[in-house]
């Protein structure tokens, strides 16, 4: 296992198949609790955080990977192992973001498979993925309210809610009673993710621009009224951007 320290460059590299399997094995190992998300659940969890309206720092959402209580925290053998596993999770998150940015319609969630006792056929099963997604959504549930207030948004969330929410009504439970029904809903999830991603995209871009502007205000030196305007017009600041009535 790698003991190298994390760097921004490393975090941008996608997980190899071997690293993905390593993370999968760790999540279900004796070092984690029974409440820890599986690799399918983690993929759903990170996807909800990636496509939602709010940029949430890892320190806020990472505990939810392990379980609902502090007792669910993993028993890492060393600090190096903890850093390595954290790096794999963050790189997995960045990989999801990159995939959505490049082609939201081509995004492929990590689903599981199931079989029924009386049928040899293997069914695509997104229950664990949808559970992780709804858990990730709940991290900043209030920020998602505009989507819940939209009829179209509720339609997008329907397969995710039915497959991943607890406390379903008897009527809703009848809609996921068979492997065939769950497979049909699972196949609707990719389109829902792409639609939700596009729904929140303008909001995420606006938030990013506001943060970028605030960062520039903090780091750029103050411009004097008689200095050249930083917009490049060639005019003095007081005659250009420094004039309240000037918009350009």
UniProtKB/TrEMBL annotation:
InterPro entries: SEC_C_motif (IPR004027), YgfB-like (IPR011978), YgfB-like_sf (IPR036255)
Domain of life of the source: Bacteria
Name of this chain's protein: UPF0149 family protein
Organism per entry: Paraburkholderia elongata
Matching Pfam families: SEC-C (PF02810), UPF0149 (PF03695)
């Amino acid at each position: 296992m790698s003991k190298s320290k994390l760097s921004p460059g490393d975090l941008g590299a996608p997980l190899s198949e071997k690293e993905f399997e390593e993370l999968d094995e760790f999540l279900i190992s004796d070092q984690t609790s029974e409440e820890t998300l599986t690799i399918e659940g983690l993929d759903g969890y990170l996807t909800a955080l990636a496509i939602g309206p709010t940029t949430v720092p890892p320190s806020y959402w990472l505990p939810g990977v392990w379980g609902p209580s502090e007792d669910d925290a993993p028993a890492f053998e060393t600090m190096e192992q903890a850093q390595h596993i954290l790096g794999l999770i963050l790189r997995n998150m960045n990989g999801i973001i990159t995939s959505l940015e490049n082609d939201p319609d081509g995004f492929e969630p990590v689903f599981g498979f199931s079989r029924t006792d009386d049928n040899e056929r293997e069914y695509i099963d997104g229950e664990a993925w949808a559970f992780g997604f709804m858990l990730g959504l709940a991290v900043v549930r209030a920020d998602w309210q505009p989507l819940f207030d939209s009829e179209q948004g509720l339609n997008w969330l329907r397969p995710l809610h039915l497959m991943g929410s607890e406390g379903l009504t008897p009527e809703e439970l009848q809609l996921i009673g068979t492997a065939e029904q769950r497979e049909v809903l699972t196949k609707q999830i990719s389109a829902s993710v792409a639609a939700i991603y596009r729904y929140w995209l303008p909001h995420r871009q606006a938030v990013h621009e506001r943060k970028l502007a605030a960062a520039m205000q903090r780091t750029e030196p103050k411009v004097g009224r008689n200095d050249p305007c930083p917009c490049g017009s060639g005019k003095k600041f007081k005659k250009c951007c420094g004039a309240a009535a000037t918009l350009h």
